[in-house]
Amino acid sequence: MADKEDRISGGNEDATISNIEACQSGGGIYQIRIRGQLDDSWSEWLEGLEVKLLENGEMLLFGPIEDQSALMGVLLKLSHLNLQLLSVNSVQEKK
After folding, report:
1. Range(s) of the domain holding residue 44
2. Do residues 50 and 79 make contact, with C-beta atoms less than 8 angstroms apart?
């Protein structure tokens, strides 16, 4: 069972727990990785997140998100655009 948990968390349990705690506590700086691309004109609609297009057809959204409700709003907008969510990472907790 430990092997399965290591594979799921990538063997970095502390980082996973930190990301979960940041999401539960509210806002912070987030990096969202998406399969698919939008140009940076979508930034304002996506809560002002910075849009970075990657050569592999993916996109990174990066920036501050006020609270968990705002994060869920961004994720819902991406879902309505039929963009595949690859990862959501808390880079820094809101102070």
Report:
1. 2-93
2. no
Count of domains for the chain: 1
In contact, 74 and 42? CB cutoff 8 Å: no
For β-strands 58-65 and 84-93, DSSP reports them as unpaired
Note down pLDDT in tens along the chain; length 95 residues. 444 334 334 444 454 445 555 445 568 999 999 999 998 899 999 999 999 999 999 999 999 999 999 999 999 999 999 999 999 999 986 66
What is the rounded distance in angstroms from the CA atom of residue 9 to the CA atom of residue 78? 24
d(CA 20, CA 90): 8
**pTM above the 0.85 mark?**
no
Residue 53: both structure tokens together = 């297009």
> The domain that contains 34 carries what CATH number?
3.30.70
Return d(Cα 80, Cα 32) in angstroms, integer: 16
